[in-house]
Amino acid sequence: MTPERPAGAGAHPKSTHGPGMTARAATSAKPPRQTKPGRAGLYAALDLGTNSCRMLIARPKGAQFEVVDSFSKAVELGTGLEQYGRLSYRPMERTLHALRICRSKLDKHDVASMRLVATEACRRARNSRDFIRKVRRETGLNLDIITPEEEARLAVVSCASLVARSTEQLLVLDIGGGSTELVWVDLSSVAPAQRRAAIMDMHRGFSRTPRAGKAMVVDWISVPMGVATLRDMFADVDDDAARFALMSWFFEEQLADFSPYHSPQPRDGFQIIGTSGTITTVAASYLGLRRYDRNKVDGLTMTSDQIDQVVRDYLALGPEGRRLDPRIGRERHTQIMSGAAILMALMRVWPTDRMSVADRGLREGLLYSQMTRDGVLLPV
């Protein structure tokens, strides 16, 4: 498969979801009409990816939001997808079990405004529509399979508060289970004090037209390759170091159509923000955290040398050492090297020796976009 860069990136993607639903509905009923919350109402965002099912329930608080409840479970929905092109029975059952838990949390908190989305595994699987109907029938949850553009856009929005005032050129990368999104944003025409607000405003869509005071997308790309799919592609390579090198080289080849790849950029005013489980795990390993602490990881800046040293340590550990390393965790040890291969390829080809780490992503972008739409957040 080739990376996706559809024409008309500034247009809003077509939505595949109908009206929303309230969480009080019986699971056997049709999803009822969604209502807008009051100013103190709760919002939910659910991200069903190739690997994980994750949800946040939050309330607006100033220019940010306060998390009320959360859920995260490695369901590995994409298991077997690379080989068969379909979602398999056991992964679907694991996912349904996780979604039932999410439904119970939505009921418990009486959430009225929500966005529940599925990404690459459901975009690719031939039987995904059947699965979405089964989810709706058995849980009452109405999942929306979003486009790569919307996924990329929401990842950018989630990182707004980490954008430095001095940033004129921004690269946001989001390494998922089944795809990797890269978005290059030009902020040079935006006043430094307004750059975070300009990123937040991108929830409306990507603009590729230069306009004073507006963020402009130079280019974006969705590579249909993430930590799970890249790992599966090279599963037949026995040598650990050779497999890592091949994965990194192969991923870099997929960037050929991304225009900034061929355009030298100045180091001054350039910022990379990385968001994904891979990147936060690398950051936690660098900090030596035996127990993950989001407050120490989110917003951390790492140099390319520091990232390189962590990846070298992973290679030295080998598969068994990584499995036992508490910094990596049992749920991520089989995929950390494919994620690291993607990360190293990206750090190799852009003109910076620093990366900002974001423990945030699609869920946070979904929450910000809903709250911004309803006008319940203060200006950043």
TrEMBL record:
Disordered: annotated span: 1-39
Domain Ppx/GppA phosphatase N-terminal: 57-372
Pfam families: Ppx-GppA (PF02541)
Ranges in a coiled coil: none
GO molecular function, one term: pyrophosphatase activity
Cited InterPro entries: ATPase_NBD, GppA/Ppx_hydrolase, Ppx_GppA_N
Stretch forming the signal peptide: none
Domain of life: Bacteria
Name recorded for this polypeptide: Ppx/GppA family phosphatase
Protein's organism: Rhabdonatronobacter sediminivivens
